[in-house]
Design a protein that fits this description.
single chain; Four Helix Bundle (Hemerythrin (Met), subunit A); 132 residues; binds zinc ion; mainly alpha
Amino acid sequence: MQANYKPLEKKLLQERERVQGLMQAETEHRSSLSETGDLERYGNHPGDEGTETFEKEKSLALQSNLQIILDEVEHALHKLEAGTYGTCDECGAEIPYERLEVRPQAALCVRCKSKVEHTVMVSSLERANSTF
Ligand SMILES: [Zn+2]
């Protein structure tokens, strides 16, 4: 018996719209930064370039975070279509409805999620060690 995922689907669609809107806003924000940047190069604000670069980097970082969320949301919507929504990508276990309510794009059960986070942490530690 499948749980009723309709309210979660609605949440996911809203989230997708929200994230896409934010990404669009960041793109516009950056293009307005370069426009003023070009003008200022001929003006008398030579000190603003560092701030502008920082703003751009911040905006790019924010946008790549948004992209990750968007990918997760898209993935969850695909799972809804495929009828696999609410199950863990990793072990196939059912993801508790309460977890999905808090985070509708969750693709892993709590156990697999903590395993993945642990693996990521360990592999980045290994990378750090081999660098030195
Ligand atoms: Zn799992």
